[in-house]
What we know:
The structure holds 4 protein chains of 4 kinds.
Chain A: H1 3-6, H2 16-26, H3 34-45, H4 50-60, H5 64-73, E1 85-90, H6 93-97, H7 100-111, E2 124-129, E3 141-143, E4 146-148, H8 153-165
Helix pairs in contact in A: 2-3, 3-4, 4-5, 7-8
Chain C: H1 3-19, E1 22-27, H2 30-34, H3 37-50, E2 57-62, E3 74-77, E4 84-86, H4 91-100, E5 111-112, H5 117-120, H6 138-143, H7 148-156, H8 159-169, H9 181-191, E6 196-202, H10 211-218, H11 220-234, E7 236-243, H12 248-263, E8 279-284, H13 294-301, E9 325-329, H14 330-334, H15 336-342, H16 344-347, E10 358-365, E11 371-376, H17 381-388, E12 398-403, E13 409-412, H18 422-427, E14 436-441, H19 446-460, H20 466-484, H21 489-505, H22 509-513, H23 516-524, H24 526-534
Parallel strand pairs in C: 1-2, 6-7, 6-9, 7-8, 10-14
Antiparallel strand pairs in C: 1-3, 3-4, 4-5, 10-11, 12-13, 12-14
Helix pairs in contact in C: 3-4, 7-11, 7-15, 8-9, 8-11, 10-11, 10-12, 19-20, 20-21
Chain D: E1 8-13, H1 19-25, H2 30-37, E2 39-42, E3 55-61, E4 64-66, H3 67-79, E5 80-86, H4 88-92, H5 106-113, E6 133-138, E7 148-150, H6 157-168
Parallel strand pairs in D: 1-2, 1-3, 3-5, 5-7
Antiparallel strand pairs in D: 4-6
Amino acid sequence: MATAAALPTKAPADNRLKMLDAAMTRHRHQPDALIEILHTAQELYGYLDLDCLKYVGRCLKVPPSRVYGVATFYNVFTLKPRGEHTCVVCLGTACYVKGTATILSALEREHHLEVGGTTPDGTLSLVSARCLGACGLAPVLVFDQEIAGRVTAETALARTRNWMEQP
Amino acid sequence: MSVTTLTMNGTLVSAAEGATLLAVAREHHIPIPTLCHFEGLSEVGACRLCLVEVEGSNRLQAACMTKAVEGMTVTTNSETLRSYRRQIVELLLAERNHVCAVCVANHTCELQNLAVSMGVHHVRYEPQAPQLSMDASHPRWILDHNRCVLCTRCVRVCDEIEGAHTWDLMGRGRHTLVISDLHEPWGQSESCTSCGKCVRVCPTGALFEKGTSATNKDPHFVTYLKMAREQKLWNR
Amino acid sequence: MIADDLAAVRERERTAISLSTARIAVCSAAGCISTGGAAVKDALGAAVIAHNLSGSVRVLGTGCLGLCHAGPLMRVTRGDAEPVLFTKTTPAFAERVIAGLPSGVLPLEQRCDLQQPFFTRQHRIVTSDAGIVDSERIEDYLAAGGYTALERTLAELHPEDVVREVSLSGLRGRGGAGYPTGLKWSTVAKAAGHGTFIVCNADEGDPGAFMDRSVLEGDPHRVLEGMAIAAYAVGAEQGYIYVRGEYPLAITRLKTAIRQAERMQLLGHRILDSQFNFRIDLRIGAGAFVCGEETALIASIEGKRGMPRPRPPFPAEAGLWGRPTLINNVETYANIAPIILHGGAHYATLGTERSKGTKVFALAGRIVNTGLVEVPMGMPLGEIIFDIGGGIPDERQFKAAQTGGPSGGCIPAAHLDLPVDYEALAGIGSIMGSGGLIVMDETSCMVDVARYFMEFCRDESCGKCVPCRAGTVQMHGLLTKMTHGTATDRDLALLEQLAELTTRTSLCGLGQTAANPVRSTLRHFHDEYLAHIHDHVCPAGVCAMNGEDPR
Amino acid sequence: MESLTRPRVATVWLGGCSGCHMSLLDLDERLLDLAERMHLVYSPFMDIKQFPEHVDIALVEGAVANEDNARLLRLVRSRTAVLVAFGDCAVAGNVTALRNPLGDPMPVLARSYGTDTSRIPGVGANAGSVPPLVPKVHMLRSLVAVDYYLPGCPPPADLIFFVLSELVAGRTLNLQSRATLG
Lengths: 167, 236, 551, 182
């Protein structure tokens, strides 16, 4: 297989590529496993770059344009590397009613970012979510994997400022 | 082959079993506007222009995908349907940058012709004026996203007839774009065979030949190709 | 594992429970975990060991206890005594609880009154295991009577008997549209030949809804059992759970549960030594609301872009890979085991004439008791909001209740006496939806709320059909103009016309219902629109009204 | 004396190429025929500076590209009974609006005049020399109510003749499938 050709520089001597191959083998290289494999690839590499998409497409026998189409259809997949820290702002209805829009714009102003963007130094990515299902605690934000409820603009800014100061 | 009888706009018409309402209408010269439909390609039911009223159902049905059923009563041109179709054409005209005056497809464009036939003289919706690119990297043809209506005829002809699957859609909703390979310049596509079928099925000026003002369209060439292939006309 | 072994496991587990002096359940649903529930549970575990109580005290992580706003919640059961529920617990508090157990003294503060309407007015079927069953232990589920329904089904019922029981129960799809479940099952059963599929739609996408999440996190085996019974009824051997990628905890718990069930031969080959084989695989959604639509869901499981296709053919006839496919929602499957155990007729005694059983609602927004509740169908909306939900906080006025998410509508105060069932909600321009119930007070502007939902639909439209792709963009633009105070009567007329167009001509449910929030607010809050357009005033003071033309 | 009872007609040129007016001239001898039936009170063909009061019919060519276009259009609307959007720019923005996807006028101006703002007419120190461009080009209906739409780039002379004949005769205009954008 064109493993080396497809991922010449991006796969250093780590076993991420092996894990990706193993995942594809587990799905018997079926084309319908594309989304599952993209999940795996993103978990391993943090994002999906073109070489990776090309490689997965070739292994699963899915045309490149379809791979790209699937990778850009779903919100979860990202083709750009994320920042070191991620702040997810929930924009579900319950959170919206309790004012997450204000928190979001405060974060955008403070860090000169738009939703989906990353600070130039690669420290912080600002992401929005369509309901995290923790509506009882609205407004909800996620600071790197940790869910925080009843957040205010001040507490949110305190967290992100802290990251920016000690990257 | 058994024959089905149904009523279309008050007239009894006959249809081959399994025929779509659109095929029946065309056979009997009853006009139904279409955009995503192309003779010989699979149906997607996406443009919603061919919606018709079927008695007994409160849902409008896409004529291109609804099979004729014995005893069906179909209306293809009520005032409501005409109003919906006008609105859909207006929505398309407002969606991207359709500037007929400077388009290679002026007067041969299916979208423009639909607008004329429906009496759409202006668009009531806010023009979205998105900033979209053109891809002129291919030696022979150009893709202009400004004029694309996302009918996916190019995607289907490339997949179903040519078998290359160079084209597909990326993104979603209003950000949907037709792309080649991994959103790479068309001229560098590894999968494209430069057969040009996509250009020939494009209803607007989104795909066109360099150096021409209008591309020659043949609405039947795909059917012809398919027939030739299925009946092995060339290797008898 | 055969039925006798299963009985032995149940017996062993029940004995262990009866021998324990106290069972301490910590809510381990996402809500309480985000307020520190995991730390509380860890502290309990440590304290049990420190106080040498390992033999007599059991600590379990359990499904959503309901009062999410007061978490982390802790429920202490001792022998036959009334359980005690503690709110807003901390690790230090956990230590105090354990320290007090030997002397039988529990802290008096932070107790929650279990006799308040929030608890007494609920009727728990789907959520009955919360506080009793540890979400990660199949033995707990078995001890509480879990998998008895599957056992009974395989031992005593023909597939058609199962379908008949479900039809008799009057259960309707809990995903939102309310299609009769029994009818769906019988269609699939009839279409079946070889290779029928079962799908559990756990792509809970409505913003403001977290019922399915709670069920999956709290009681995953209940869903697996429901699916297995359904598979038996329609003749399927393969099932998929399509679960939101945003629910990592639910995914983990489901993986654990599937593994446990396979080990006990409750899933997999020759289940309980019968001829019945059924395997369940997870498919992780990647963030697309439209995948809640059945045909888009199918495309997504097949690894494609989640774009719907016109129906017919319906998935019941031609679904996954063209095979007959039964698709039900999490809550629907969660109702199956109780229906089989107690009979469809018994289930049908609850609820209204055409909407049977209970419904789980996620209460959120401007309401005192935000959290999860399960009530009989037909309970008046006002009772859910004011008696169970505790009303509106901060002495504000109720303005509207939003049900059905972006496909639903806003219900004004005039309809608070409305009995909540499928028909009644549809009658006033909303829908039951999957169960999100968001309460708004006078600080919410209804034009802005309509704009919010339209933005959602615009961003989640798959882009396949023109009315939805371009219509939602235009409607959003018009609503934005209104919130900026630059809209005219002509814009209002265009909005109404576009709302009709998208409803009537869109390809799938997303587009067909995208205008519902607009239509229901136009219907019930027309004055607010006029205030924005004629007087350039936002009565709630939410909208910018800066007179700038939005671009 | 008879001329006073004839409809008062104006033609207006906003942000457009004047192609629609050229097409109007293509009516050739039919212009004489029309002149018998109407009274032209304002037009780029005439040396009249002020848009007059009490106009019955106005054909407005071009889109609103600068602030003066906007001012004139509002004046025309306030003084005219029947306002016709004359040609694609007036109807839909057309070529004049091709700059809209680029955001604001600066990229276009910079492309034409260079990035040195002191050389760009109507900007910075040159303000007042020419009317400033509006941020976004508007078709007529975005700013005022339009009674009829006469599309085409340009509308063919025959169609212009038909439209003027109908309106001058006081009839309601119905173009149906006779007209097309482009």
